[in-house]
Amino acid sequence: MTGYGVFTTAVLKWFAQHGRELPWRGISDPYGIWVSEVILQQTRIEQGRDYWLRFMDRFPTVEALAIASEDEVLRLWQGLGYYSRARNMHAAARQIVELGGFPRSIEGLRALKGVGDYTAAAVGSMAFGLPVAAVDGNVYRVLARHYGIDEPINTTRGKRTFEALAQDLLPVKEASAFNQAMMDFGATWCTPRSPRCVDCPVAETCVALRTGRIAHLPVKEKKLKVQERHFSYIYIRCGGMTSLRRRPAGDIWQGLWEPLMVENEPLPDLNCRLTLLASGVKHVLTHRVLYADFYFAEPTERPVLPVGFQWIDEHDILNYALPRLVEKLMTMLPDK
Fold this sequence. Notes:
By secondary structure, the protein is of the alpha+beta class. It contains 13 helices and seven strands. The protein has a four-stranded mixed sheet with strand order 4-1-6-5, with helices on one face. A three-stranded antiparallel sheet has the order 3-2-7, with no helix packed on it. The chain is elongated and about 75 Å long.
């Protein structure tokens, strides 16, 4: 492997010229940094920026987030998906308040609900200057290509290999800048497709470029089989009211609200005509593909529904956090 001093210096110099301007850059507030990292875990930065601004406006401190209700947090999160992130962040905020403030060690940060190695390293280095490398997908890609590493990045051994290399490359006194530089470099320069190899600052020492393996690195082991599920949603409108239930724990969209739904079962008898609004609506999640049929029912009397459903004024439905798939259904409803 080429001397890491040259690589680190080149990446830091690149960052000084090309680093992205983001609203949480340059701040030392661990709360703001942490919120940005949680939002960006499964979200594109363009979308994440707006959510971060709204979150910081609504919950400007960790104390404000801690005293909020889960429904408030989920409503503000609506549209970002992976709702466990929001629930974990809410729970962690309460942990932090109980502790009297943010932990200032990697071990302490790691003990917070939903905080893994990467988030702990990112917050620790940016907020407290802790000399710990933050390794995300961008960093895996940059290191795999530059050093020609074909160890799969989604294995325990692979993760340890890349974490150790990133830690060796980390300049102790510039941990924050280096971690952000690697993220930005992977996101904007050494991209998955069409990387800017022609004007790359470390092109001369890049093993993948020299050996023609840019498109083949990093390596991932075969993904888990994608599961298909089939839902039928029935939106009921009765006298200006509709009915929702909160989804239970142990499945997707825990804690979000939805209309009557059956999965791989016959449609229930609601003593009225069901109007098919759409069929086979595809919705993709991690390791799952959902196919949904949307129905509309307008009975003259409220039907008997399973335990857990509650009737609400239809005008209030936007006060409930809904899955994105249900939002699609809402756009297809007939006028009142």
